[in-house]
Amino acid sequence: MGTGNTPGGTFTTSEGISFTRMGYGAMQLAGPGVWGPPADREEAVRVLRAAVEAGVDHVDTADFYGPHVTNEIIRDALAPYTGVSVVTKVGSVRGANREWLHARRPEQLREQVESNLRTLGVEVLDVVNLRVGGGPDGHSAVPGSLAEPFGALAELREQGKIKHLGLSVVDAEQVAEARSIAPVVTVQNWYNVAHRGDEELIAGLAAQGIAYTAFWPLGGFTPLQSGVLDAVAERLGSSAKAVAIAWLLHRAPNVVVIPGTSKLAHLRENLAAAELELPADALAELEGIGGA
Ligand SMILES: NC(=O)c1ccc[n+]([C@@H]2O[C@H](COP(=O)([O-])OP(=O)(O)OC[C@H]3O[C@@H](n4cnc5c(N)ncnc54)[C@H](OP(=O)(O)O)[C@@H]3O)[C@@H](O)[C@H]2O)c1
Asked: Where does the chain cross the membrane (predicted)?
């Protein structure tokens, strides 16, 4: 991973894998509701190429986005993947009515890994996150053993189908259990300036040399809206979105962000966050946004 210019710097895990702290999230490159093709596929290809040209060295996806749609766009835009890694997720599938279904039995995970290999057009997957979670909002960690599903992925890694493993929507106990089975390079959870349930987890992962990848850095389907973000952005001559991303990059050295966008102009705005210094008074104001 790494292409020379590294927006926001890089974080190197205890396994020696480095991620540019500014990544890119491909989920919303699919159609509405993360289903079917996007309205403007050519723009989606341009966005992906521009992100990598700007130095972003990892793109987040899942074969259940579309389904298959974001992986196929990524393949068309980025194969043979020079200077960029693809981080995919397994553990879910989409139902016929567009529902998001858990699918974590070993045979289901093996199928999903094979499907990712096919749709991305590769012989080995760079990083595979086991997505767990659930709960009332569908995006919170739910305690429970990961031994069987993570063990199945560890076997696939040993067979050479996966280079590195990660986790998504998990708690500290689940990270510890997974690490007793195989190395974990990243944990991907919901975290942003208004949703901060994972402060302790981030610090714990930093001590273990694991990247914490913040999903929904801009609020996802419920865009972050805050007068404080707007006011800080205005003072700094920036945008509220860039300030929200810069806040994450200031949070801890192991925090990696994967903002998503389907538009080149938004991509440029988001990448600018890597250069945005937040003065102490701005950080103090942003601290007040808080939330769980
Ligand atoms: N592990 C998990 O369970 C999980 C769950 C959710 C998401 N994720 C990952 O996290 C990544 C990020 O999530 P996300 O894309 O849903 O949410 P996000 O990055 O928080 O926000 C993306 C949304 O913000 C808009 N946006 C982006 N930049 C903007 C800008 N500069 N100005 C105005 N609007 C802007 C985008 O619309 P435009 O297209 O119009 O720019 C899009 O609707 C996903 O791609 C996915 O890979 C993982």
From this structure: none
